[in-house]
Amino acid sequence: MWNSLKARLFQGYRTGKFPHRPPVLPERFAGRPQITADNCDQCGKCTEICPSDAIDFNNGNLRLDTGKCIFCSKCAEICPNKAIQMSKEYRLAAMSREKLIVTGSIWEPERPTDREFLKFCGKSLKIRQVSAGGCAACELDFNVLNTLAWDMGRFGIQVVASPRHADCILVTGPVSDNMLLALKKTYDAAPRPVWVIACGSCAVSGGIYQNSSVCSSGVEKILKPDLYVPGCPPHPATLLEGILRLMNKKF
Amino acid sequence: MDKNYLLLANGQSAGIKNIPVLTEIDFDRECLHAIREEKCHVSAFFAVDSGEKTLLTAILADPGVRKFRVLQTPVSGKFLSLTPHHAGFNRFERDVFESGGLIPEGHPDLKPLRFTGGHAGEMEFFAMQGKAVHEVAVGPVHAGVIEPGHFRFECMGEKVYNLEISLGYQHRGVEKMLLNGPDKRTMHLIETAAGDSSVAAAWNICRIIESLGSLEVSENINLLRQCALELERCANHIGDLGALAGDVAFLPTAGFCGRIRGEYLNMSAVLAGNRFGRNFLVPGGIRYGSDAAVIREITAKLRIVMPELWNALELMFNSPTVLDRFENTGTVSRETALDLGLVGVAARACGLDMNTARDLPGGGFAIPSVIDTGKFNGDVLSRAVVRYEELKKSHEYLLATLDTLSCKISPSAVKIPALQSNAICISATEAWRGELCHTVITGDDGKFKLVKITDPSMHNWEGLAMALRDEEISHFPICNKSFNLSYCGHDL
Fold first, then answer.
1. In chain A, which residues have their Cβ closer than 8 Å to the Cβ of B240?
2. What is the 3-class SS of chain B, one letter each residue?
3. By the 8 A CB rule, do A166 and A127 touch?
């Protein structure tokens, strides 16, 4: 007991200042890509190099789908005209799939409009996580939010052991065929109303596994997500900011 | 050639025609002799199509000469199972059966491994009979935030008589998607095959592409890669030790380690931009260079965090309530470990002196020193202490190596050249769980004709099952966490 107290004093209070202060991000952090359409001469080098086919031309206009993007920033490196650049913007989560598509450089994260969600979950949110082909990175970085460094419990967000206790199912992974049934059963076991968070590029769109013959290219074809969190894996700040915004928590 | 096998160093390539093709009887004899008498273990075992015939291929790690032994035998339709003679072949033969349709005759428990096509869990479980017997089924969706897998316990009262582990839920078809590479997806698929071992996996495939494409890599780059790997190993070991503390409700260390693990992920992010070290290793070198400023940032952080880490861990290892739960729980004997072919942390905790970094050197650069394994008896405590001692060695290595690396290392973006055609190359790395082995065979066009990933979990899942035998079912969480195996690395 005495030793534990001494250790506690030595270790100190370590919960981060987020969300009252922006998160500390590494110098090489790749956040939301920005597109400067005027710089693009449509050489197509970016579409060629993109490992997850996140970039295409829509009527000649360059667009990048952050739902597919794995943030390797190879497109920004190869672009001779700096038409694509990776910003430090960590707020990537969106409440509709279309909002994930980047065509310019201006981005204002949207506010929640789901009144029912705010009524049920505005103050506390119980999450049941389902890994459906996730590679463990999304799962590990979601777990990080439970550590004292991020302590999501202080916002009323909690992981629950049973779907019976859940307000929300957080899905990671491209939904492997072998997890399809278990995912559906978990969703069905949760009391209504229930919401869905797609965490990570795999869950949003299949990501790097979108062409796998034994996966579903993300959760969208099975359940309609209420929050899409891009990233491979999403930075803990990205995920937490997204959930807090969904809950309309203001700081 | 008088030898019955081809010797290949870690990351050395050779034409596939150099691999001796033995008769099945000689092949079996050679494999079993190497494992029983010459301290070899199975690194990979698979079937590969070669024109009109299918060749069963064994890759055995030989610590004596510090090389892989590669040998083949032609089979059609069926072959004699080696599992009854060495249990380490079990999962490999099930994989051969599932992916190629070859039947290992005499296999004691033949069933698919990954149940492709939405059939995970649809199998006959080993079942005990009797009025007092009860079954406990857990998963695939677990109570915590972890990957899916199914565990079936056969119990009488609290005591577990058998645990059968049924996996496949994470199957994403990684090996199939890697075929005809290398292409723009290759590195990312490799890095996400088991997302907590991204650096180790990336290094393996880089070494293979560098070998088959005759790319040179400087010693400094190898040292920096090893540092990235050590950061990955540290983060995972710390996370595991914290989680073990959490599982026995020793919350101080659980809390401290959860936070400290994040510091190591952040150090990886300083190097790579990604907390899991992704996109850092590229064939031919590294994606981002390092200079004195980057190295200084990491060493400064290490020096701050180290005392906090040792404080958190010593608190746990000096706590009688923790030791009482860890000691003599989930014991796997040395003999069982040898028979199952365990690798890595789990094997060392059983007293086996094996370490891929030392036994299969991937180059002439310095590696962390290995721990003395003589004192371990295979219980949860051993697996925890192995991690603790390895953390010490990793830190010694990191501080010593980073100091010598404070010069500027430039990023190297190399165009991947055409690879040697009809060649085989094997690369293994001591990832945080143990030996992670990648095997690539190229076709006539120099493209990947076969990619086999052997995650350490492939060897070690059976170890967890044995750890639970005759153990109380309430000890499952700490036994499971003390192994902390990968589901996706196994299911691919």
1. none
2. CCCCCEEECCCCEEEHHHCCECCHHHHHHHHHHHHHHCCCEEEEEEEEEECCEEEEEEEEEECCCCEEEEEEEEEECEEECCCCCCHHHHHHHHHHHHHHCCEEECCCCCCCCCCCCCCCCCCCCCCCCCCCEEEEEECCCCCCCCCCCEEEEEEECCEEEEEEEECCCCCCCHHHHCCCCCCCCHHHHHHHHCHHHHHHHHHHHHHHHHHHCCCCCCHHHHHHHHHHHHHHHHHHHHHHHHHHHHHCCCHHHHHHHHHHHHHHHHHHHHHHCCCCCCCCEECCEECCCECHHHHHHHHHHHHHHHHHHHHHHHHHHCCHHHHHHHCCCCCCCHHHHHHHCCCHHHHHHCCCCCCHHHHCCCCCCCCCCCCCCCCCCCCHHHHHHHHHHHHHHHHHHHHHHHHHCCCCECCCCCCCCCCCCCEEEEEEEECCCCEEEEEEEECCCCCEEEEEEECHHHHHHHHHHHHCCCCEHHHHHHHHHHHCCCCHHHHC
3. yes
Please provide the distance, in angstroms rounded to a whole number, between the alpha carbons at the two ends of chain A: 37
Residue linked to tokens 């007991």: A1
How many inter-chain contacts (A to B, CB under 8 Å) are there? Answer: 181
Nearest C-alpha in B relative to A163:
B143
Per-residue model confidence as pLDDT tens digits over A199-211: 999 999 999 999 9
Selection from B138, B98, B117 nearest residue A178 by Cα: B117
Q: What are the residue ranges spanned by the domains of chain B?
A: 6-105, 211-435
Distance separating alpha carbons of residues B295 and A85, to the nearest angstrom: 26
CATH fold of the domain at B211-435: Cytochrome-c3 Hydrogenase; chain B (1.10.645)
Chain segment A111-141, per-residue pLDDT in tens? 888 888 888 888 899 999 999 999 999 999 9
Assigned CATH for A115-246: 3.40.50.12280
Residue B147 and residue A134: Cβ atoms within 8 Å?
yes
For residues B42 and B29, is the Cβ–Cβ distance under 8 A? no
Q: pLDDT digit string (tens) for B235-253?
A: 999 999 999 999 999 999 9
| Tens digit of each residue's pLDDT (9 = 90 or more) over B79-106 | 999 999 999 999 999 999 998 889 999 9
- Residues of chain A in contact with residue B143, where contact means CB-CB under 8 angstroms, are 161-162
